[in-house]
């Protein structure tokens, strides 16, 4: 049975055939090379949203950059994992080994599976709360939260993260996908069933959700402007959270990841003003999480 028309899009005045996109930059503040990329993409104008990794070394500089652009749509990229071999970060709060948030070196676990296997749900909620609170204390006008590596998408953590967002008055990026779509995202059957049911529950609470998740590759280079055009041509109707990981080509980025060329290709694609013109001609409508934030229930 096909999904019913997204009520969030209906409230914003879109039709059932409209293709609506949030172009979202993940990992702002992960390293210095993300900052210059973000500034350039704001100037070009196609990027419509981004989120900051609060535990990372360049988060304070990212926050200062965002404060210089108060019109920008910004969220917190809730961070519970630290995936690189030689560039690591850890919790803002407790690093007590007993709570399971950290590995033997005292950093976040490098994989989502290790996090889910070891981290206490109460400690996770405390850490996520600290990340939100720090962003607010730094004067950021937040619109949403999303999760680094999708780490919060687990039955142990989802309800608490939703309540954190509700108290902060921000949107939770969560897709209204069916079981098959969740399986395609890598979930096992039990997890996919739980995620699909949870999405239905959130929508009954009146929370705005996205319909689709797509992402540019961030570990392989190439012509990502052409790839973006292809991906947009294939987009179905509904609201799509379109992920990119833009970063400038720097020695720092190359030292962090062997997949640096993918992040640079993401950046170069969205610096391409011809792509901006093509999107405008394509009929794709670009919005931000600030638009969805206006739809949040008052209570």
Automatic annotation (TrEMBL):
Example GO molecular function: deacetylase activity
Keywords: Carbohydrate metabolism, Hydrolase, Magnesium, Metal-binding
Record's keyword annotation contains rRNA-binding: no
GO biological process, one term: carbohydrate metabolic process
Keyword Membrane among UniProt keywords: no
Cofactor: Mg(2+)
Pfam families: YdjC
Protein name: ChbG/HpnK family deacetylase
Organism: Deinococcus ruber
Lineage: Bacteria, Thermotogati, Deinococcota, Deinococci, Deinococcales
